[in-house]
Amino acid sequence: MAVNYGLTEQQIEIQNAMREFAKERVIPVRAELDEKEEFPHALLQELGKMDLMGLYIPSELSGFGGGSLDFCLAIEELSRICIGVSVSYAANALGSYPILLFGNDAQLKKYMPPIAKGEKYCAFGLTEANAGSDAGGIQTTAVLKGDKYILNGTKQWITNGGEADTYTVIAITDRNKGARGASAFIVEKGMPGFSFGKKEKKLGIRCSATRELVFQDCEVPKENILAREGMGFIVAMKTLDTSRPGIAAQGVGLAQGAVDEAVTYARTREQFGKPIIANQAVQHMLANMATQTEAARAITYAAARTIDAGEKDVSKISAMSKLFATDVSMAVTTDAVQILGGYGYMREYPVEKMMRDAKILQIYEGTNQIQRNVIGAALIKEYASMK
Asked: Is 46 known to be catalytic?
């Protein structure tokens, strides 16, 4: 029996709709999308027609009006089948959150409705070659000239890069102010001086598009700045605090998918005249996998609910969910391959892809070592205030 997490009827409907979509539409094409490294346009377009692309966007901006938990439920079900598809889906929110959190009315009304309807995709431009974990070390610059900002620099490993139409980009407007000299901008595909690097070849999530964003005297209208100059670092950190439970949900879904495959195989694979699930060693592995996955689900839902409750400081619980769920995902997918043995190593079975895909979850949107830093800093702050 499934754990009762007190989901509403609407949340159960979201969960069921995405589960059915993933089984019926994603399973038949996931191996081909992975092999061909093909961006899942058709699948995302279908999700748009189902009103699931704008799940996290307010209804007044043509979205569904769902909260963080609603979105995590959808991501989890999609990730259970393929996180290459789910990250292409979820990255739209990562790119949208800066606008939703800090955009003015004009920006919200211009950019959110087409993203909510699935007519356009979105992406977030923070990482650079020398500024990944060190988000304060970005080199991309933005200089105000007349009524435009001129951007120069390169963003690296951007999910949905080249496929997205709208990009939220962090650039330095005042080098002398350090992190307080960063600002956030909305950049549109097709703006003069904005181009893309090659599509990266990756270990996993191969159908997801990962490219460089290249700015060479890119002209961005002055009104496309988010909040005001100097707010870029805050925009980036608040965005990541909001989005990290979505990565945790990817980890939960992927781990659950691996458990599903491992249990199904163990029930049918016979050795020494009996199914291998009859062996206590295999039962213990499966028990650990299922327990870790459920614990990851619990902390992920808790993080999403904390965000939905409107709590101001969610950095610690957000980082905890991302850290725990993605470490679980890597461990569980590795054990799934072990249970399937030689078959698990073959592309004929999906667990080898699951294991390849799982690794990125410990890396993107802040490595799990950085999550530990965030949690540690929060603990220091909390205990200092108790004195």
From this structure: no
